[in-house]
């Protein structure tokens, strides 16, 4: 464990201990009694023997406590059993004598009993003990170091006080709590840590009983040594015995949190524990996931075996928690007051047990465990739980519980019946959910969406609101009108508009201008409409003038109106373009024949242009001269005929350059070759000369000299021999270098000879493993190495040695071959020496050998050829051979000619070519220079084809007379011909009438242009009129929108007809504009269809058009969605029947789940009881044998701590759910991580983190249940126990809770319970819901009006020092009145501080003694969770009663002054305490107070608790919050249906409230009881949004109604499907039901 964790862990542990003087275990004081009440926190025992008291209590005896008679002497120093010679009766009777006298005795007994009982309930800790022996000692304190006297108990024996009423009062008895005697561990720890004193352990005597004498003797010895060592020390042991309150449970938790002492340190194995200690978010906690868990959907997909085994009802919020628990998630459950935390925990436990999980359920308060245990007991599952809330739990109680479980017979549930009921339940759920989904699922239609429910009730609102038969009929007709589907928003926006539209339309019709109402494009702005009317008049006049003009012929008029002047202008422009841009004759008609001729010319021009590209830069006109073409072709043929190309330059120019270079170079080479013999160049080919040059360039001088020397040899065979031999010598030289590198002597290997190395090589290759030991040949091979090397050279491995010997053999072989082949020693020595300088690759040697002829003289010529070539005589850049390569021309057959002949032919060709080129023009010569040699044949062919194309083109041009110009066959461009043809084609000759079209075929281009210009003038006049129409936007839009504009403008008479309605509205412009504006608005909102029908229907009825439109719209929506078909299978009767079946089936299924679970987990005890030790001492038994042994015993049972330690696994098998407090868990459970599957902590807001760490460490999954708006952990109990004056006021300090810390650590995994069940009237929770829970709780309204929180004033106020005695009297009076009014209801008295609580308890006890009815009431509820009790702010959490009477305590003092100090309420968390206090009642809260709200001063800095206190007092007086939240009055309705039904019922004389309730759930409407207006007669609910809001049919169809009926409601459900079919019938049905209920109420009142 790292240092930080260790420090955090130690800090948490130390918070549990109190080593200060405040701790009674270290500094006990037998102080004086309370001055007012006479009570003490202790009783001092005398005249008794401690061991005998313990023995009697251990044997299950109950001893009576006896007060000291007056005047009787006593000695508080007791003797031990070993110190008494004879036991008198006083020691052995069943009584215990104390020194206190009456009445202090009885008061103190009652005090001790009550406080111990409270501690057991709140913390699970038995704090009442018999303290045996006290150590008097001194503790150095303060800066001065002055000693302070301390008195600390030595041994503590846990006991209980009970009482029995007799005629003379109460008799008090003492009995064992079932726990063992133990030393004061706090004292032991204090002395050990701070003084280094180790006190002795308590051991047992031979009879198994605690040896009190020995420990006293041992302690006496220890302190005696201490007193000797410390001179000023006077420590001593007092034999006093005191019955008092001592709490040491935290010591057990302190020891438990020493994780190093655990079997496995949870800090090392559990990341979660580390996160809790560090306060960090855990990385290993899985995210909670979505809480939108739909029970019906979840359970429809799983088998019945996987359905959570619920033992009680679970609403949707509770079900989500249960599901998350079963998923294995760790999380926090936020449970506001009354939301069913205990019920949820019960269901979690049962569901987990069904999954075979081991559960630890922990809570500080006993009540929290008992509520859950009682719930489990009610369904026979308590046998599988073991409750060990208190550290003082009775051993007999535990053994009896185990014995009951072991002997329990296994139940036999019918699994088949269980499965059948589940199938039935699923089917019923499905039917109900299908209906809910059907009517409440949003369905899309054009421009909107609605649920079926919304549409039905919107539609019915009109029918239900109709005033007479005429209106009903009108609405029926409206439903048949088909209108556009628009959104609800748009529908609301156009109500007034549609009414205006119909009104204005009527005015227009009355004016006689009916046709204008349907026209479009009429401006809605006054000035624009005026402009439109004026423009219409002007245009009409212009058209009339045009038609009546007699100067225009009929043909010209028609042509001019229908034809475009611009089109004629375009054609004129095109004809002018042809005239100006092309070589065309102006007098030739552009007829079809002329166009065809141009079409024939175009491809031939393109063909010519293609040859233009092949002729490169030759001017085509240069080719017009036949002589030029002839010479040009002859020169090309000369080149083509002379050369057959194998290799040649690219162009003729490059060819001439290469021929000149080679001719000059070869002339110089010939001179060098022939310097000694003029005929030598005739004996070699050009190729021979080239390779001689190549050879001389490629070889170094030394190698060249060697080659020349060899070439001087006598014959070819000798030359070949010497060349081959010198090549081998070069290789052998390399072998020699390898051998010398390995320190091998070449002379020695030659002496040894080749055979020796071959034998050694074979021996190595054939030798195997260990051959070097057993084969002499291998040994010889090894020895051979020593002969040829230096002795210091390490012999290599055999594989490497074999390679070396092989090289030796080859070296010797080549040396011997040299000597055999060359007999001349001098020549041999020359070759050997030359081999070291010979650097010629084998390819070049091979070429030299191939170069050498067989004839000696020829061989010598080769020598001379090579030798005579002198590179210094030639001009070249880098390499002569490369220059030859770059400029050579390989001619077919020239390669085999002698060098001289080849040179002569090249020179001749060069001379003739230059001559030919001089005879042709420069332009053509330049072209020949640039032509590629390989394209010469193609160029000749191209020239011939070009001449052919020119001749053909000339014939075509002459054939047509349309083109006019010189050299057109050479100059015409295809692009010009194409553009000319395209321009002609763009002129659509056919668009003109026959009279115009005839012009183009009769006259030439010039005259055609003239004729068209005349027609253009006529068209311009017609176009001007059309432009006037189009330039008027209003007229143009009007004609376009109301007719086919293009058709209208063809006929001027039609234009006049269309404009006539505009001219007619001059006198009603305003009405038309308003009408058109209304119409535009409607159209913009998507309303087009049905307006005429709505207008007609509105005129005939008294209903507004907008209402009729709304009705039509709803009907159209209903029709578009096919609602009638969708809901056809649903009826109210069917749904009511299904709900009843579901109600019964759901409850039955839960009951069967209980039986199924009990049967499944009732394992055979033989399977639960594990094998263990069953021999030797019985107390040493383990597991099953130990449990069986203890169950068979009648007394002297093994201590629970040992029982748990020795049989834990078997015990947990029998009882898979342990219910414990943190104290009991730390005391009894094994110190091992993850021994439980699940931990559930309840009331977590009051538990400190250090109390829970041990619990968390023992569990894999944790569920923390609490409410961060209720009580936080505080030091109230510690302060109370440490105070000598138990009635005093303490300064309360609040701490962080395990709930707060878990919210951080568990990744904010949080669920929230939301349905409030406790309060039987909404007013009891409405204040907290409003002030503390943001109105988020689902609260079900009571059927009574008003508030159940009342205020009882205390007039005779007298508040002083935390006490208000007059208020206590009023509380007692109010209690008696309440009992008299309703004796069946349980009651809890609550105060706002401890002092008032103590005094009220005292007064209540007196009253109970003196009032038989009060005593009877107390006895009726005694021993139950509903007993009459007194609690205060700090210990009331977890309690609930029918009625809570609150004493506010604080008030004016005797002078009438209010101090405005309200104890813990003034603290930061004071409001949380009030929240708990205000929410304990089920039926009624009675506030008894000396305060008036106005007396509480709430300043700007006032604490939230003080503000809430004042507001609650106002609430209790006025009920203002309740009235505002409960009564709906004129609140908004959730749907038109509610409003329609509400109004219909009101019209029939009923009083109603709508939206009745508080929080998130409200009843749609409620009928007020006509007999008693303080309550409601009937709740009316529909199947709309509220019905749909829950997550399951259980919530929708059972729980909600079940809760309402439990609150006294009669519930009437309206089914939308029935109302849709016949609303009047359903309304009558509801009316009949209300009358029937009203009659019953009247009869009941009369009878009463």
Question: Can you walk me through this structure?
Answer:
The structure is a single chain. Residues 1284-1292 and 1522-1530 have low confidence and may be disordered. The chain is 55% helix and 10% strand. Helix 12 (341-354) crosses helix 13 (366-378), helix 21 packs across helix 44 and helix 30 crosses helix 32. It contains 71 helices and 32 strands. The strands form eight sheets. Strands 1, 2, 3, 4, 5, 6, 7 and 8 form an eight-stranded mixed sheet that branches. A seven-stranded parallel sheet has the order 11-16-10-17-18-9-19, with helices on both faces. The protein has 1648 residues and is α/β, with parallel strands linked by helices. 40% of the residues are buried.
Helix % is 40-55%
The coarse silhouette is flat
- First-residue to last-residue Cα separation: 76 Å
What does the average pLDDT come to?
Answer: 83
**How is the main sheet built?**
8 strands, mixed
Give the topology.
Elements: H1 3-14, E1 42-45, H2 50-58, E2 63-66, H3 89-92, E3 95-97, H4 104-123, E4 128-141, E5 146-166, E6 169-176, E7 182-183, H5 185-195, H6 212-229, E8 236-245, H7 249-256, H8 266-269, H9 271-278, H10 295-300, H11 316-326, E9 331-334, H12 341-354, E10 359-362, H13 366-378, E11 385-388, H14 395-406, H15 415-440, E12 443-445, E13 448-450, H16 452-465, H17 469-479, H18 488-493, H19 495-510, H20 526-548, H21 554-562, H22 565-581, H23 592-614, H24 626-642, E14 645-647, H25 652-673, H26 686-698, H27 701-711, H28 716-741, H29 746-752, H30 754-766, H31 771-774, H32 776-788, H33 798-821, H34 825-835, H35 842-851, H36 856-868, H37 880-887, E15 890-891, H38 899-918, H39 922-930, H40 936-959, H41 968-971, H42 974-986, H43 994-1002, H44 1005-1031, H45 1033-1042, H46 1045-1048, H47 1052-1064, H48 1069-1084, H49 1091-1100, H50 1105-1121, H51 1123-1126, H52 1132-1161, H53 1165-1168, H54 1183-1192, H55 1200-1214, E16 1217-1220, H56 1222-1228, E17 1236-1241, H57 1249-1257, E18 1259-1266, H58 1276-1282, H59 1298-1305, E19 1310-1312, E20 1315-1316, H60 1323-1331, ...
Parallel strand pairs: 2-3, 9-18, 9-19, 10-16, 10-17, 11-16, 17-18, 20-21, 22-28, 25-26, 25-27, 27-28, 31-32
Antiparallel strand pairs: 1-8, 2-6, 4-5, 4-8, 5-6, 5-7, 12-13, 14-15, 23-24, 29-30, 30-31
Helix pairs in contact: 7-56, 9-57, 11-12, 12-13, 12-52, 14-54, 15-52, 16-50, 16-67, 17-50, 19-48, 19-50, 20-44, 20-47, 21-44, 22-42, 22-44, 23-40, 23-42, 24-38, 24-40, 25-38, 28-33, 28-34, 30-32, 30-33, 54-55, 56-57, 61-62, 62-63, 64-65
